[in-house]
Amino acid sequence: MDYSEDWRLWEEVKKGNARAFEKIFNRYYLDLCGFSFQITRDKEGSEEVVSDVLANLWLRRTLVDIEVSLKSYLFRSVRNWSLNHIRKKSVPTDTLDIASEFLLSTNIPADSDLMLADLKNQIGRVVDQMPIQRRTVFKLTRVDQFSYKEVSHILGISVSTVQNHMVEAIKHLEKYKNLLRNLC
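Request: output the structure for the sequence above.
Response:
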């Protein structure tokens, strides 16, 4: 995999050469799927992410200006799309998990599905108020069960930054604990 070969293929792709695009696709598809899987932990989702990235690249080939190597561009794109995939996938289940955790931590009996649904909605609103990076760190650690080190790798931030985001996220939730308790 030569940088100059990638560059030559990319120049051909920009001109609409489908065979050059197929070569790029064949060269990187499996590695990109493996990379995406490390982030998403979802085989089908990883394949979908990579297919979407490559399809988007083909559709926008005349608009995309790659200033780094093609390989770097592809891996960065897959990383970003994979993180978006996690965010979209985790939204429906995360608040239920947090609501259940809250009910267990406060020893409040969850007698009613309606109460749990209302609590889930309220916690979802509280979590959504967090800054995007903090919310992402929180969901990756609490919902998707990634370790701080894994989250650090996924987001490209230090482990101490992950820890700081979690401390702030927990403080944020603690501020609303009494409000949430009143719902029950």
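Residues 150 and 156 are 10 Å apart (CA to CA).
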